[in-house]
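Let us work through a complete example step by step.
Step 1: write down the sequence.
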Amino acid sequence: MQNGAAHSTLVAAKGAGPHGRHRAFTLVESLVVVAVLGILIALAVPVLQRSRASARASASLSRVQQCGASIIAAAENNAQRYPIIVPKPGANGVPGTMVEIKTPDSTITTHFFAQVTAWNYAIEALGGGRVEGAWRGEPRNAFRGIPAPSDFFLAQSFMTEPEYWTPGAEQSAQQWRAVGLSEVTAPSAKAVLHDPQEGISGSPIFFADGHGALKFLRDAGAGVPNSLEGNLNRPCVTTAQGARGRDYP
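Step 2: predict the structure and record it as tokens.
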């Protein structure tokens, strides 16, 4: 009996301090715990950031595809031509530089190349309908995506004859017109819309054949300067050879 009591006292003493209290962590042990936690957090944060970025890219790609599908639908309801409003000819027979776009509340008068600021109204006017909630927002030289704000830029290649985008060629208002669906010679490689906000996986892009993909803008072909709109040299906006060109190999 005495041996049992002595053994119990010995076991209890192993986990206790000199006054019977449990021993606290030493500074070294605390630092080790903090270091381990720091390593775990450092490993977890990039994974979470990539996951969030991937989710945002997927959502933006979905919106680009919805907007692009509405553009294709509008073209199919507009004699197979992209829904561009062409300036009316003046007294000399030459097209002017301004267009009028009817909105539900008024009429917008804007430059031919700036009509993308009210592209949504043009599509509605042509009977193409619109993606629910995706066409509203502050008018800009882009689309305003909803609910998560994202600007989708329209390729101006669909607003002129292909020859307009030939380097060194003369550019004039006579070449401004709505491009037909059949004029796009490489629809799977010709961008219609793109989101300039590029993530780790690329930028959401809608192509003329109806598919969407994440691609890096730096991999796209160089744009052609537009003398009427300044030095507008952006890929996926002013493609060389216009609708007959390719934005990606």
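Step 3: interpret the result. The longest strand covers residues 98-102.
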